[in-house]
Design goal:
heterodimer, A: about 160 residues, alpha+beta, Glutaredoxin, 2 domains, 4-stranded mixed sheet, 7 helices, B: about 575 residues, alpha/beta, Ubiquitin-like (UB roll), 3 domains, 5-stranded mixed sheet, 4-stranded parallel sheet, 19 helices, 19 strands
Amino acid sequence: MSQEFTTQVLDEIIGAHHNSPSAVIAILQDIQERYHYIPKAAFTPLSRRVGVSEASIYSVVTFYENFSLEPKGRFIFKVCDGTACHVRKSMPILERLRKELALTSDQVTTPDLGFTVETVSCLGACGLAPVLTVNDKVYPAMTPNKVSALVAELKEELSHETN
Amino acid sequence: MTKGVMTIDGVTVEIGEERNVLELIRKTGVELPTFCYHSELSIYGGCRMCIVEDDRGGLIPSCSEEPRAGLVIKTNTQRLRRYRRNILELLLANHCRDCTVCGRSGACRLQDLARSFNITNIRFINTALNPKTDLSSKCVSKDLNKCILCGDCVRVCNEIQQVGAIDFAHRGSRMRVSTSFDIPIADSSCVGCGQCAAVCPTGAIIVKNDIDNVWRELDKKDTLVTVQVAPAVRVALGQAFGLADGENSMGLIVAALRRLGFDRVFDTATAADITVIEESREFSQRLLSLQSMPLFTSCCPAWVNFVEKQYPQLMPHVSTCRSPMQMFASLIGEEYKNCGQRHVHVAVMPCTAKKYEAAREEFKVNGEPNVHYVLTTQELAQMIHQAGVMWDDLEAEGVDTPFSVLSGAGVIFGVTGGVTEAVLRELADDRSSTGLKKIAFVGVRGQEGLKEAKVTVGGRELAIAVVSGLGNATTLIKDLLRGARKYDFVEVMACPGGCVCGAGQPVAALPHRAARGQGLYAADRLSSVKRSEENPLMSILYNGVLKDRSHELLHVHYPGRESHSSI
């Protein structure tokens, strides 16, 4: 689960980047790493500290696909749909994953914030196609059945964490 | 040393100080079409209308190409015409095409260019997303159906004004000009200066229009409609009727307003005289107590908004004086409160932020605003057109009593440095005409964004800053907060050049702005009363309606004023 947003954490992150306006992207990446998304509450203090307008920060966040303004799940699936993965049938994997978690292309995160399913254009690991990652751990040569097993495993892990 | 020559359409041109090829082309008398190029903004190179062809068939966006010796270019070839047409067609593809009901119709660059490129048919289906118009602000409205993403508004808001209310959000086909989280403009850091509307080449951002409301009031039989006209209006309105920028047409404006049906016409410069007296008193008091120094002027509503939103801790520095418009509105309200009719007061201003100021709670008496409607200079021109009043047949008239006397000091309020000069005339030890001339040359005049002056008053040397453009104001505030600068008096006008360049004025290129300022200084030279205090009306007012009530009628308490600040 992502932690509650605090300005103290934000201050630490911004401080590590010396309040520099040119480090806005790096700061946003650090915020996202910590919370799995960019909390709206971060905008005003970030804007004041680095001297970049909130509208400009919003501009950066909405420009890059990688930044999210929506809270993301504990486990983030990134299913590769690059050319190599696509021809080796990544789509059925994605479909199975969405079916298992009751997600769609619009609703990418489960309501309990357990899982997020996204696609990426290429993970640069075409030799392992079809490939996906879960929180940066790489799962090569996937199949729909393997994905179902993985989801079951992670659900189990999640229930332990929350208990 | 010469930088060499370039060849433009077969003409040899010497390269001077031009920053880019486009400027050089314009110097040769060719007006290349552009949407995203403004000489005072950074270069964006987005619209691609200014492309030119070099002698090897290469295409160059002339706005973002440095002039270099030996370059041979053509600006008008078959290929370039085809590309420009294509660009226009593509821009129109997802553009609202209801020109006849657009607030910018007739003054729209997209419309102009579509016409001059003879675009009669658009081959692409209209893919406009049809988002809702943002009407939240009192000053401007934003309709993304008409946005061509040239970014002019974004750059003027961020670079010149440093307000940062808007920026591009999303990308590709979903890209749009947006506030943070797409909140309504009224809730953003927007201060209402309207400079975005002034640079917008289409109708995507336009100034709110109050004409119909004012017509309704003028039509009512039992309503007395009074109007005040700001100093800056007189040197710009004429532009809409073929006069040169800077030509003073106050007399004709008064005549036109009477023809439109206004019952009493007044000149805001009269109230500016009161502002000068009040502000000078406040300044003298603060000089003695040395509390909340420097004193910031408070005439400009966008500036007041800016301090409230961005630097609330500095609100105690802002003068408690109401703006001349609001001072006058209080006085006029007092004058006509027992007139036996409903009284409605209208102000004609060069300014969009005045529309917000008029609606502020602080300026309401028993729930009624002191100024019911603010019309911009452009709106007044439109009303004159609507009513069919023939401008050329008008004969100049004078304003109405009892507020018919004004000084030159009040008139120059409309130009950057004018308020400061008027206050200095009031405070100066040397009251001779040479003294007056000296004040004019201490450095408060001119179009520069930040001017500094030192003046000795009562044996004390005062440091004064005159700022126009909120970006320049931001720089100054940061320096003040760091302790890098120290002043006693700071005049700020949100629009670069002051009110004469306000967003409610007919749009003017840089050289014309200076002409408008000169027009006000000329009016000042011709006025027989130079100092506000010497305006004979002042003693009448101060011994009459203002007796024991000057604080109530002329000052304002904005929230946040009670906090303490030390710079």
